[in-house]
Amino acid sequence: MASEEELLHELMVCTLTLGDATFVHQHVVDAWAVQHATEDSKPIAVMFGLIGLYLHLERGFNGREVQRAHMQLGTPRRTWSMPELPERRGAIRVDDVLEAVPGLDLQVMIDVWCNSVWEACEALHSQIGETCAFELGVW
């Protein structure tokens, strides 16, 4: 039986080989970073994951646009604080996403996963929205 991390790598291969202009792979990276964050995770990875989920689900950004926002946030370098995450961060897991048929169904399941993780972090929604407004000018 494959570990969840091995399943993530399988999913990443699928999303990287899509060659889609919207770069759905970014949403996989963001959902994973938030859902699997630990006390050892880098705060920037978790914050960028939350920001990516916010931009995608609340503001309609595609993965390429989220990637550009991440680059903008990374220049100049700043120190990010680790947000207080809930213990449970979504019921949908990587194996659920991989059960989808490659193609449109896979992209739909990635969005379902992202939404599951984002909704689990509801207490952070206003903080992340304010961060995006302040740092990116995205209201």
Kindly describe this structure.
InterPro entries: DUF5946. By secondary structure, this protein is an all-alpha fold. It has one domain (4-78, 86-136). 62% of the residues lie in helices and 0% in strands. The protein has helices at residues 4-16, 25-35, 43-59, 63-73, 94-98, 104-120, 125-136.
Give a brief outline of the structure.
This protein has 139 residues and is mostly helical.
Q: Percent of residues in helical segments?
A: 55-70%
Shape, principal axes of CA atoms:
globular
* Helix/strand order: HHHHHHH
The overall pLDDT average reads: 95
End-to-end gap = 44 Å
Q: Nearest-angstrom radius of gyration?
A: 14 Å
Percent in strands: under 5%
**Helix-strand category:** mainly alpha
Number of domains: 1
Count every beta strand, where a strand is a DSSP E run of 2 or more residues. Answer: 0
User: Sheet bearing the most strands, described?
Assistant: none
Query: What's the total helix number?
Result: 7
Which stretches are low in confidence, meaning pLDDT under 50 for 5 or more residues running?
none
InterPro entries: DUF5946
Organism: Occallatibacter riparius
Pfam families: DUF5946
Protein name: DUF5946 family protein
